[in-house]
Design brief:
Blueprint lengths: L11 E6 L5 E5 L5 E2 L10 H12 L4 H8 L3 H13 L32
Antiparallel strand pairs: 1-2, 2-3
Length: 116
Amino acid sequence: MRCPKCERTEHQHKIGRTDGGSQRYRCYSCGCKYTPVKKARGYSPEVRQKAIQLYVDGMNLRRIGRQLKVNPQSVANWAKAHAEHLPPAPVPEKVENAELDEIFTFIGEKKTGSTS
């Protein structure tokens, strides 16, 4: 092991592990504590892409989180970041005619007569 501070290789001793399981070392020459090989943090790009694909297909954030075993807020952050990189939507031309269907709902009197 080589100390990242003083660059010495002698007097490097193991002093335990981190919460993530990485080996920690201490340089007894300068007192520096360090982890030589740090573990990668975060989720892989494949998991992120799968989450975005599921979201685009219509699955809700909580279900995606349960299925991929990630926090739903992470899925929301990934979807938002992905949406920011999309090109802007085209602006429609001027609309001259529009057709609408009408739905009529009638509410009559309540039929609350006695049933006995």
